[in-house]
Amino acid sequence: MGSSHHEQALQRRDESMSSRRSAQGVPKRWYGAPIVSIDGTAALVMGLGADAQEVWPVFVGYSAYLLGGPTVHAAHGRWGIGAASLGLRATLPGLGILIGNAAGGGNDDSAPITGMVLGILTAATLDSAVFAREPVPQPKTGFQWSPNVAVGKDSAEVAVSGTF
After folding, report:
1. Number of domains present in the structure of the chain
2. How far apart are CA 46 and CA 56, in angstroms?
3. Residue 67 domain boundaries
4. pTM score of the predicted model
5. Which of 48, 94, 114, 161 gives a 20 to 30 Å CA spacing to 154?
6. 145 located within any domain
């Protein structure tokens, strides 16, 4: 009984190792170009709005930054990654503000803004460089077959087709 338990443990370990290998060996495709485009446009709109001291362009730009990446992930059917992207994009700018304020000692008005900008850049970079990768669908391999039946007024046909 001890021998079979040991063999089962070894088999589970081997299966676990092979599943990790296959997961790591899956080729991935980058789909981050739309995210980079949206983030670049959002940054431009926010910057122009801030320079003109107008609230609406900053609001619109920040909204595009906040929702652009998650929307692209959702369009690729990666809802969980979209949620993680939204969390990252919502959290890092605020964290940057807190760190900037602490680094500026509360006396430097530009330090929190610098921290926020660095948080936005960090979130956008991580989102497009790390999150925007999906597995490439692999063609099916192996033997496949399918039966075909056609019935007409004066005839009937039966056929089998396959690939290997």
Report:
1. 1
2. 9
3. 28-135
4. 0.68
5. 161
6. no
